[in-house]
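Researcher: Quick sanity check before group meeting.
Model: Go ahead. Protein one:
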Amino acid sequence: MFRPVLTFTIAAVAFGAITGSTAQALSLTTIATKVTSPTALTFRPDNQWPVVTQRNGLVVAIAKGKVNVLANLTDRVGQQGGERGLLGIAYSPLYKDNGFVFVNYTDAAGDTQIVRFRKGKYGHFLKGSATTLLSIRQPYANHNGGQLAFGPDGFLYVGIGDGGSGGDPGNRAQNPNTLLGKILRIDVNAGTPYAIPSTNPFADGTLGQAPVWAMGVRNPGFSFDTRTGSMWIIDPSQGSDEEVDWIPNPAPPLPNLGWRAFDGTKPYTPQPLAGTVIKPVTSYGTAYGCNPVGGVVYRGKTIRKLRSNYVFGDSCSGRIWSILRKDAKLVDTGLHVPNLAAIGQDPAGELWLISQQGQLSTITP
């Protein structure tokens, strides 16, 4: 039986306040407008043009304003309800050699599927190459997660929501014996169809599910700082305390983001917490938005004022913020993207944003 480990190390700084706008004026340059219901934005290694997933099951590449279909997964994807569909994508860092690309979607039954495809001609998904890595039952239609990203260790990280409804009624996020409400970590370059990294908290599977790397999340989005390897996380609130979190590299054993003992910084359902408790870097209320959209740490060269800042936004308010972990203060960039869907970073470190209406833009000084 699993016994909670009551370790309360704070791996992030205390939460801060909303401040003024950036001193350097920024603008958006529109690249394309014909993407339908986008959910994720990424780039193939060493390719300057973005790849976008559409909720309906299409994977498209956008080059010089033109939208080209790389894969049609509509026969696999179920999108009943507002949060289901094709939700995430990640290209292997070894893509040029192994041709692996991974997607995260809900199927016709509403369950999460993590599937690997191989590269075909011109970057299209090779027909018949699908291999299912994980299949996770979803008890409700919301909080499916969807995030996929490769970490600095070369492992694939998978964001899985708490399974939905409201308030995590099954306390799934704090139950190590379910994959719901977790960030998973698997080695997709070993095993059949994958291997478990030996340093996963429950690697032997005796006290919890072996793929679990972090727990206590509601519906997470995350990315890795390409320079430091640290992880930035957004987690939407049950009430009005949208949170931004940070996990250092190397990470502590079993990071626990606190849901549902806490909702952001506020107590929700107090209970003992296993692992290393991670408190939010910052949080914000309904005056500033109601649904955070995960971003990236800016490592480009063209926008001096954003260097080393984590840049993210909110789909309700459309506001785009930057934050430095050391002072934990949100800075309004002055940019506004109504119904923001996703933020991505190209191989040069520059920022791209896409709205739910399909407008793809870059940030320029």
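Researcher: Fine. The other one?
Model: Protein two, sequence then structure:
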Amino acid sequence: MGRGILKAPLPVALLIPLSEGAGPLFRQVYLGLRQAILSGSLRKGERIPSTRELAEQLGISRTVVVLAYDQLLAEGFVVGRGGSGTYVAESLEADRARSSAHLTRFRLSRYGAAVERRAADALAQGPGVPRPLRYDFASGRTEVESFPFELWRRMLLANARRASLRELDYGPAGGRLALREAIAAHLRRSRAVVCDPAQVIVVNGSQQGLDLVARVLIERGDAVAIEDPQYQGVRDAFLAAGARLQPVEVDRDGLDPARLPARSRLVFVTPSHQFPTGAILPLARRLALLKWAQRTGAVVLEDDYDGEFRYDGQALESLQGLDPEGRVIYSGTFSRTVFPALRIGYLVVPRPLVHAFTAAKWITDRHTPTLEQQTLADFIAGGMYERHLRRLRRRNAARRRTLLEAIHKHLGDRVEVTGDGAGAHIVLWPRGRHSEEALVRKAAAHSVGIYGVAKYFLHRPSPPGMVLGYARLKEHEIREGIRRLGEALFIRVHSWPSQKA
């Protein structure tokens, strides 16, 4: 008899687990043998069964095994010896077993090391990770139940059917003209943004927009002014780019321009609904911020992540629309108003920056998917987006009203509420001395998800606060969640009258 495998033919079959639905049988046989060779279970120079023998062991057609062997021969994992059989190639290492102790260690670039440090927690705990909490007040969620998905599917299918071969090739880096025209028209009408389609850069979500800003405008060591507290995504993007962050304290009216540094390359601001505090930047501060940018030569990055939602009076116009010099880059996204998986956002950049940002987008990923762009363009241009926004505003307004009433009833004056004038989240600031971590744990024990504000500060805040998003919850869930939160915090408030917000 031969060597190795022929002395004990049964284990070879055990090395090739076959399962229904796991792909073509020949592919499963090929992958099983390939892995056995790479792991050292089959050693170099060792003879493997004939195609007939292995087919009998596995109870499958010999033709299937022949196809698998042909693939192994073509890739050099095995060699055939005329009149003798098939053997594991001698050129392979004797033992390819892999262990963490022998994995190659790589030297990361400064950017790679910074990204790994900054994004580890976000990847593990981001909004896409499901939580086993019944009443989850996570912020940044989109209310997707009311979106007209059936209409969207029909529109997407129609665009796929009528797309020409040219339209299915690489598209323009800055985005399809139809979508850029639709975005520009909507922003001029609803947010008073002063722009034309040429200034719109379509990106894969607002996070890519932040990354492009960092790549195009920030050198390692550049000073960047940033709200404190702030959105973690922008902090991580700028730190990964090597920026030297200059935190500017936020108060009840948002960022205070009087506290801005003497010089800075760029300032990041969320004027319509500061994240996370919810403060709204008043007109006087907006004008002062623009004067500071003019005086220092800085660029202003305006993130209007949920500027479409305002409940007290008319929505405030954009900061970009007040800019006489073209120093503001305006950032927006459809993740909050359509659905997050769409991954379409946009930048509106000053004219002198259009070419640089378009080139950076092209180098990054060439372009954003074109069929989705055209479908979104049709959705906006056909008036369906505006109707959907009105529906979302009504639903969010009802949730907000329910939330504030429940807070008043079950938490009373034990907490202060900020950020309730716009957006889809609020912040609760408990009165008295509390541990933020303890508050979160107590709430979780009652199946209520709340989220501390400490992680959004470059310096830990005092007193602690809790971010509560409400876009994804139903009204009865909001009521029950806040009732449980009151119990979790050992707050007993009785006979408070319901109050309309």
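Researcher: One line on it for the slide.
Model: Residues 187-386 form a domain with the Aspartate Aminotransferase; domain 2 fold (CATH 3.40.640.10).
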